[in-house]
What we know:
Layout: H1 15-44, H2 47-53, H3 57-67, H4 70-78, E1 97-102, H5 110-119, E2 123-128, H6 135-138, H7 140-155, E3 164-167, E4 177-178
Parallel strand pairs: 1-2, 2-3
Antiparallel strand pairs: 3-4
Amino acid sequence: MAGLVPMSCFAELPPQLFLLGNALRAGLILGGTSYLQDLLLPMNVSDQWLAPVLDKLDSVKRQGWLVNDVYALQNLMESFLDFQPLTSQLPSIGVPTMILNGEFDFLTPRALHETLRVQIPDSSLVIVPRAYHAFTLEKPALTADLLARFADDVLAGRWQGNKAVWIAPEEAGGELMPFPAGYDHLRAIPVQGTTA
């Protein structure tokens, strides 16, 4: 494996995510896939993505029914019950790693990706602007562009993770921008970072 791209994920299960996982499991059992899709869709994408498809949501959800097996979803959610943290294993990742996180990802917020960035030696965190948890669905061209650039850099030997934090461009083909120096990338407001 030449490189790794974790997206919208976690190595530790904090209390908020643990409780969300249990609630989603109960929702799946009691309400089924339809209920779960109704609950999760607005948490996974922006109003800008939802507004044009609002009158077509049944066909959007039908596609979700076709690709999501109810037992696989239940197994995924039940894995939260005995999840063991992976943080101690992260330093052993020896390949270049680009961590992607949506700016407004409610389900796996930036703090969960920070653990990956700090612990994986050759990593960088790239924040996808104006994106939620399902940024691959919402911004497929930008996601594909970021993946292609990462692959090109890794294969050409140009990748230098340096545990940096970047802001992805708004559109595919734009330039990545370093997160402004001196500001806390874990905050939603522009607060200067502390030197702890």
